Structures are given as C-alpha cells and as structure tokens.
Amino acid sequence: MRVHVLGRAIDYALELGLENIEGRCKALSTEMRDGLRDCPGVTVHDLGPNPASIVSFTISNHPGSDVKAKLTELGFNVSVSAPSSTLLDASARQLPPVVRASPHYYNSEEEIDRFLDAVRTLSKA
C-alpha cells in the first residue's frame, strides 16, 4: 500500500511540475498567513521577505499544546515548536512554544479555509 501511495505522490508532483511546487506551497502558506493575521488573538511569528512554507503562530491565552490537541482532534496535522528548538531566535524574541502548520502543494484552498475557520473558532474561545 505504501508503495502505491508514494507512486501516486510522485505522479502528482510530476503532473504539477517540479518547478511549480515551490510556487504552490508559497501561495498556500501566504493564504494561510494572511488568514491567520485576520483572526482575533492570533500572532504569526514568521519573519523575512521570503518565508518558508512552514507557518508559525500562537493564539493568545491558548498554550500551543492545547491548540495542537484541538486542531489534531479536528483532523489537522500541526506540530508545536518549543523555544529550545530555535534557542537564539526564540530567546531574542521571547517566543513561547509556537504552533507550526505546513501547507504543501497537495493541499487545497478549501483545506486552508477549513483550517482558518478552526483557528478562528479557537481564538474566540
């Protein structure tokens, strides 16, 4: 089964075109960042003019581990990055554990919208 899934993933990547994957990932992560910035109590922590497709954020008054648990329960795959994983940056910016989401080329805009709706609901709780 895994070989079949890997084969399908390769086929999809080739159909999309390897040169287009970066652009697709960037578009989805930009859509996610913009949507998160519009959510009350949400702070996006990514820096620089050309951020990677990993989107880091926090929701005020909600520990990262609680946000991860709730989003996982709703079917979203996110992780939490402790300050120790980026010690210099996290220390300099006094970052708490941040939630990390990684939209990829195979995700849809509808999935991003569902994710944003879930975060928006959490941010109001």
Write up what this structure looks like.
The chain is α+β, with helices and mostly antiparallel strands. The chain has a single domain, classed as Alpha-Beta Complex (Aspartate Aminotransferase, domain 1), CATH 3.90.1150. 54% of the residues lie in helices and 12% in strands. It has five helices and four strands. The protein has a four-stranded antiparallel beta sheet with strand order 1-2-4-3, with helices on one face. The mean pLDDT is 89.
List keywords for this structure.
alpha+beta, Aspartate Aminotransferase, domain 1, four-stranded antiparallel β-sheet, 54% helix
Number of strands: 4
Q: Which range best describes the helical content: under 10%, 10-25%, 25-40%, 40-55%, 55-70% or over 70%? A: 40-55%
Distance N to C terminus: 40 Å
Residues in β-strands, percent:
5-15%
What's the CATH topology label?
A: Aspartate Aminotransferase, domain 1
The average pLDDT value, as a whole number, equals 89
CATH class: Alpha Beta
In short:
The chain is built from five helices and four strands; from the N terminus they run H-H-E-E-H-E-H-E-H. The protein has 125 residues and is an alpha+beta fold.
